[in-house]
Each structure stands twice: as C-alpha cells, then as structure tokens.
Amino acid sequence: MPDRPTDWYQVLQVWREASPQTIREAYERRSAQAEPGSELRAQVDEAYAVLSDPARREAFDRELDASDAVAGDEVAPPPVEVDEPVFASDVPSLPRPPAAHPQKKGVSTGLLAALIGLVVLAIALSGALVAFLLLRGGDGGGDYPSDLGDGEYDLAAMQLQEEDVIEGMAEENSGEFNNDDWAIILAETEEDVEVKLNQLEARGRILGHRSDFGWGEETFQHFGKPLTIYSQSTLYADEAAAEASLTGDDYCGLPVETNPDLVEFEVPKIGDQAEAFDIIDELILGDGTDQGLSLGRRVETIVCFRTGRVVHAVSQIGLDGTEDHEFTVELARKMLDRVDLAFENPRSGG
After folding, report:
1. How far is it between the farthest Cα atoms of the chain?
2. pTM
3. What pLDDT does 258 receive?
4. Rounded to whole angstroms, how far apart are CA atoms 256 and 281?
C-alpha cells in the first residue's frame, strides 16, 4: 500500500473546503507559532505554497482522493459517529472514508411498516425541533424583537455568570456604561473623550453592560489558562447599526486598539449572525510605560453575535497557546441561553 501524502490541510489546520482567505490567515497564524528554520516552519511554508496555488491545490486534492480510494479498497473503515459538526478553522478536517456497502436483503412487510412509522415519527419530531429553534432563536438564529423600548432590554440579565465560566473564576467587575462612560474608557487622552463620544453617537450606540471574571490575587498561578473572561452586551438604535458594529471597524463595540493584529476565524451562526477573531499583542506587566515587563504574546479570542439590535461579545484573554476557539464558542452559546431568557422576560421601563 503506498504511503499517504503529507496532508497540507492538516499542517495548516484548516478544513479541505477552506477559502483562499482562510488558508492565508491560517498560514500567518501557523508561521507565527513555528520557529524560523524548524521542520514545522518548512512544512507550513510548503503547505501554503501548495494550497495557495489553485493548480497545485487541485493536483494535490486529486492525489489525496486517489490515496483514500486505495485505502478504502483495502480496508473498509467502520462508520464514525460525530456528535457535532466542526466549525472552527483551527481544527483540521479529514477527507471522509468511503462507505462500506452491505449486502441487500429482503424486507418483510411488517418490518417495512415499522420503518415507515419511524420515518413519519422522525419527520414530526424534526418539524417540532425546527419550530422550537425558530421561536427560541438558537444557534441557527431567529427573528429577535427590535421594537422594544430602550429601557426594556435587560442587558445585565444577558451576561455570563460565575457558573458559566471556569471553576475558580469569580466576577470582579460588572456594570452599565452609557456613551459618556464608554467614551472615557475608549479615549487615550482627555482631549480625545469628546471625539470618542461623537463616534459612539454617530454609530447609534445607546447603552452597554459588561461583566468581567478573573482569578483575583491568584492570577499568576493560572498562566496556563485564560487569565480573564468577560461578556458584554451593547444596545444600538436599530438593527442596521448593530449589524454595522459586528462587521465594521467598531469591533463589536469593544475597547480595541485601532488597527489591531487581528485574525478572523469561522464560527457557526449564533443568534441572528456571528463573527469571531483573535487579537494578538504583548502582555506587559507594569505601569504601562516602556519600562514594563513583557510576559509574552497575549491573545484575546472574541466571539460576537447579534440578537436584533443588541450586539453581544464573549472574550477569553491569555498568553499565547492558551487560546481555545471551541471553548469561546461554548461561552457564546451559554450567553445566548441567558439572552433568550432575558427576551422572554423583558423588564419594564421607558
């Protein structure tokens, strides 16, 4: 049996159907993780050279298919059950093995009737499930109301709670921020506050609420885990403004530096729409001056999603290597559950 060729998709940690943009972003991420001159770096460079060239990629796909066909003829692999589809671009997607073909057998009338009954039941259950998801506005999205009064959105109730995050983390800060408050947080100088306030009002931002979770005085004992997790919900004037915050340079209404080192990754649809990205910078210990101690590369993994005219975000912040896209998506789903409950029970207010 011939050896299977090196799977360049696995080297870049992308699925086989990845777009050219996803391949380029994966190459940048994997290059940053590999030491210059190392065998891994050489493999990453070769993988990008093959997969970024349409002709070479097509030839490589044919080579993979031929190799898998030979393997399938020699050994028919058992069927693999998958609980959930893989969405994050940092998880490699392997080609599916060819399915084994069982021998045909006759089917009795009684068995056929039972099978038909099961099919009818399955269709009924699936219809009920679809109706439930549409009403609930779950991962597949749904029409969330946008006609509530500004005071009826209970943004505090939409936030993650301590039981949603990592055991041992505690809520350290939680509060509501109007545009005046948020402009002070975003501004780098006192003179910049008015400029930021005008930007927030021009973008249709009305109000936000944020909750932060951390390790308290034990932060230094948890460098192998996320150092901080936070959730944030921001109310906008209308759905168009909320969508622009999710897809434009507002970075979901978060306090992000201008033109950050940002790498997007794919996530399933959550609520009405979702986006995700990593922000990479340096973690400095000190007073914010050039004399601070660098602890290494810091990665903030963010998943944003929208429900009507509210934009939500969950974030985990840690040292390079602690980022976990799947975990951040799980946090977003937990937050969506709380958002759904808040929509079911809007608070009274004008």
Report:
1. 83
2. 0.59
3. 72
4. 11
